[in-house]
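Figure caption, in words: inputs first, then the predicted bound structure.
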Amino acid sequence: MIDLWYTESHTENVRFSIKINKHFHSETSEFQKIDFFESTEFGTFFTLDGLMMVNEKDEFVYHDMISHVPLAVNPSVKKVLVIGGGDGGTARELTRYESIERIDMVEIDEAVVRACQKYLPLTASKLEDSRVNLYFEDGVAFVKDKKDEYDLILVDSTDPIGPGEGLFTRAFYQDCFDALTKDGILVNQHESPYYQRDAIAMKKAHSKLKEIFPISKVYQFHMPTYPSGHWLFGFASKSFDPIKDIKKDEWNKFGLKTKYYNTDLHVGCFALPTYVKEMLDKN
Ligand code: AAT
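Bound structure (S-adenosyl-1,8-diamino-3-thiooctane present):
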């Protein structure tokens, strides 16, 4: 038997490999190259333009952290906008809240959604929920004319290269601010502080968000298959502070069983390593 390995460059000098059983799907959409693999360690996973997006083993970390953190700060959220997130994992976590009335999901690439519905039901299976409305459009254009509409916006995007680039601009963050209701919260995929290229993107995103939102924090989580394993989300908000305003009891009353998120970790994940704090403060 020949060993098959998926290998991704994390920097010019670092590579990350997963032993795979099969590379079973490959297509080039209008926006990006989409590949699906099957592996023993991480189950099924897919990449976009050669970068790991989602796998069956660690997706729970990312999807717990993008969704439950803001829901514990504002458990009364009714209307949510998800930008990107074509695998459906973020929408899946949101559908667990009966109190959420509407989930609009704007994914630029329909091909990602269709492939995930076929090959990754673990994340895509709740896209059929009647509260989920799918739009296949650029998220940047979608938010432009929205005013005072969403209680929560989750930017579940690729890195700031290719179609994801516009989702890291000041103009986009301003449009999100305007699209949010008065207590609105924006959570965005915020890159990693560790390797230089990701850290530059992270610092830029933070400095722009800080100019627009009165409250702008960053929180961390552990993603074994993303470069360095150390990843961040941004928490930007019009009124709620993510730590002072956490509603622990209310969130725990939802009775959701989660594998990564809990309300103790919620407070801890905003405590950042010194080098990360320094990077963010210098902006
Ligand atoms: N749930 C974790 C999965 C992702 S994939 C991010 C999605 O964002 C992709 O499906 C991509 O097509 C979509 N996307 C990119 N740009 C846009 C845009 N402008 N408008 C709408 N959707 C967009 C996140 C992985 C994070 C990886 C970090 N290294």
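The two ends are 52 Å apart (CA to CA).
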